[in-house]
Amino acid sequence: MPLLEVKELSAYYITHVYGVERDVKAVDNITFSLEENEIMGLAGESGCGKSTLLKVLLSMIKPPLRVLAGEVNYSYDNKHFNLLTLDKKQLREVQWEDISYIPQGSMSTLNPVRKIRKTFEDVIKAHKTAEEKEEYEKLMEEHIKYLGLPLEVLDSYPHQLSGGMRQRTTIALATILKPKIIFADEPTTALDVIVQRGVIQMLKKLHKEQENTMLIVTHDMAVHANVADRIAVMYAGKLVEIAKKETLFTNPKHPYSQFLIRSLPKIGDKRQRISAPGNPPSLANPPSGCRFHPRCPYAKDICREHIPKFINYDKSHQVACFLYSDEIEEGEKIVSESIRS
Ligand SMILES: Nc1ncnc2c1ncn2[C@@H]1O[C@H](COP(=O)(O)OP(=O)(O)OP(=O)(O)O)[C@@H](O)[C@H]1O
Ligand SMILES: [Mg+2]
Could you tell me which CATH class the domain 4-98+179-338 is placed in? Predict the structure, then answer.
């Protein structure tokens, strides 16, 4: 059984402007699973729904975001539950201890008016008994040192730290209770390359030591090349391909993934890089059928009319494209009907 099984998940931002409903279809019928001890990379261009997907996986759902369908099943040891059905208290127990989160922009988990030590203590206090607390406070210092951060970090306010240091502190906080799954949202974006390398090494070190599972979101394919075992590619709210890293880089199947890989610079290759023509669509009014069809050089009639099913191309490679199968996605109708109810 996979550690995390995401089944037919749909979540839209539903807003009303002057009485007119506007649905941003940011996560649309997504199915995939995370195995124990793997690093999955999630790639896709800005605005395609990566952060929204992570928020739903963590059950951090606030209006106007609404989950319309699907399950997020966590399964480890004697714990088996659908995260989307837990109440607030149950969720608090799960977050940090089983599943934890490194958000996009490190300031959002660090309270700007509290010293970092306090933030760590709050997390420990919320999960451990009074007797365990002392042990964990010792562990907090060891953890900080193990990750190569100076202990002074604990007695600083977030704004006193550099961006890189703050990001590494956020990672230390997310891993203090040794969660089984870590969702990291753009953990290296906005950092310079040297600091980026430090953050990547830190994530890899933690992965090895804690034997956790990571889902790392970034649009930086170099980061995926460095850390991921498998890569999932998202386009306009839908998953279009999942493959082992080596396969995705050498033999991408979906035309969008092909553009994504071919647009990467290669040392010594002076040919012009080709990127996908046109712009990403609005998720409030996505194209009919396959959402990539207006930009796809291989688009045919079926692509304009129907949504391709996410099929097994082979046992470790999935793709949603009519170039490989004529199977049509089920469920589209169910979601659009349930939204009105
Ligand atoms: N609160 C909101 N209300 C309405 N629409 C929203 C809201 N938050 C995000 N969106 C829209 O949902 C879509 C997906 O956004 P999301 O932040 O998940 O994208 P992303 O892939 O993480 O992008 P980036 O790479 O820039 O971080 C975008 O079209 C965005 O404009
Ligand atoms: Mg994002």
Answer: alpha beta
